[in-house]
Amino acid sequence: MAFSDFTLLDVRDKLGLTVVMGTLFPDASPVTLPAWLTDWLDSCMPLATAMGTEKGRSELLISPLLIHAYKLAPSRPTFFSGVEFNVDPAAGLKGFCDFLFSLSPDQFLPDAPVIVVVEAKNDNYAGALPQCIAEMYAASLFNRSRGRDIESVYGVISTGLDWNFLRLIGAEVVYDSVRYGLRDAPTIVAILLEMLEVPIAPIPAAPIAEVA
Fold this sequence. Notes:
Elements: H1 8-13, E1 18-22, H2 35-51, H3 54-72, E2 78-84, E3 96-102, E4 113-119, H4 125-145, E5 148-150, E6 153-158, E7 162-169, E8 172-176, E9 180-181, H5 185-195, E10 200-202
Parallel strand pairs: 1-8, 4-6
Antiparallel strand pairs: 2-3, 3-4, 5-10, 6-7, 7-8, 7-9
Helix pairs in contact: 2-3, 3-5
């Protein structure tokens, strides 16, 4: 079993998570995109649509927006594409993440992951949703095992043309009821930047027992 094998039933019964609908970023203010990026998206959208492949949408539409947010983020995150992320293989929390943002400066190995991005294969949001949640849960476990208390882990599901956002806090996953289209690219980048500003606090060390 791997991330892509999870179902919503597994999310509930194996991971103990509850999924609710909500609105995550009602106050996100669109950022001004550079002219080159706007021109790129305008010219590549019909091309990516005509190609009809996940790889084409990933390279032409998803990656440019993610990389632009990466470059703008004041938190200086690291960005990974197609990275192997094996957290608990016995529990099926293993596999490759399409994209991952980390708040660690280490560009060689993911550490302190805060955003996982899953491409909706063949526009299949129903299949992408449990996979994204499983990766978010794995990221949360990984952070705690590394002594990093990151309150929120975020998820993104995208076809390139449509984008949905999720947030995991504790045992609850909020699935944003708003679906953003590529025309909302300035808001999509603003939301990614807001996600990258989550605070990190070290987990307090357990008290040392006194020797009698």
